[in-house]
Write a structure and sequence with these properties.
Keywords: Membrane, Transmembrane, Transmembrane helix
Helix content: over 70%
Number of strands: 2
Structural class: mainly alpha
Strand order of the largest sheet: 1-2
Oligomer: single chain
Length: 200
């Protein structure tokens, strides 16, 4: 439909130009007095006609091509943006999966269980916030488990054994399940599992 509209616009422009030219010729033939006027006005008429034709050509040929290229560039940029976001999501998922696996391996070690028992003894088996003794969990308090692994470049259980900071009892805290779920690191892990793209 758009193509037919452009063709009609071009045809209408050509008809207008022919009508102007025919009018000038008829005026010069029928009214000899107007010849000087016609001779004077012809250069201006040609200039105006050239501008008019140029506008028509730009509107029907160049402008659509420019708009098409602009749209193609916009689509390509959108595809690249979506691909980058998908890569970011996948990268975060893979990284988090590796972290969870390493965390699970470390928490299964005797060293971690010993550290956990020492922290619980330090807090007498009570939550550091509400002092309940039910559903007690152990948390790395001042520096998170993830932060310690990241800063010390721990990639295996062997690396973990050699990291003294990971087994620092003073960095541990006993918390009930409710208050443990309210810690910043716990909320971060929960959000990362649900909406990895929003975690920057």
């Amino acid at each position: 439909m758009k193509q037919w509209e452009d063709i009609w616009d071009d045809a209408a422009g050509a008809i207008v130009i022919l009508a102007i030219a025919a009018g000038l010729i008829v005026a010069a033939k029928v009214f000899p007095v107007w010849r000087e006027f016609v001779v004077t006005i012809v250069p201006w008429a040609l200039a105006i006609t050239a501008v008019f034709v140029g506008i028509l050509y730009f509107r029907s040929k160049i402008l659509p091509q420019w708009q098409e290229r602009t749209e193609e560039r916009r689509n390509e940029e959108e595809k690249r943006r979506v691909a980058a976001e998908e890569y970011l999501v996948q990268s975060k998922k893979e990284s988090f999966a590796l972290y969870k696996q390493l965390r699970s391996e470390i928490t299964d070690t005797k060293e971690y269980k010993l550290w956990r028992r020492r922290v619980l003894e330090r807090y007498k088996g009570e939550c550091a916030v509400c002092h309940t003794t039910e559903n007690i969990e152990v948390d790395h308090r001042y520096k998170s488990f993830y932060k310690i692994l990241e800063e010390n470049r721990i990639h295996s259980v062997i690396d973990a054994y050699e990291c003294q900071e990971l087994w620092e009892v003073n960095n541990g805290s006993a918390l009930c399940k409710k208050h443990h779920s309210q810690t910043k690191s716990h909320r971060y892990r929960s959000r990362l599992e649900i909406e990895p793209l929003r975690i920057r």
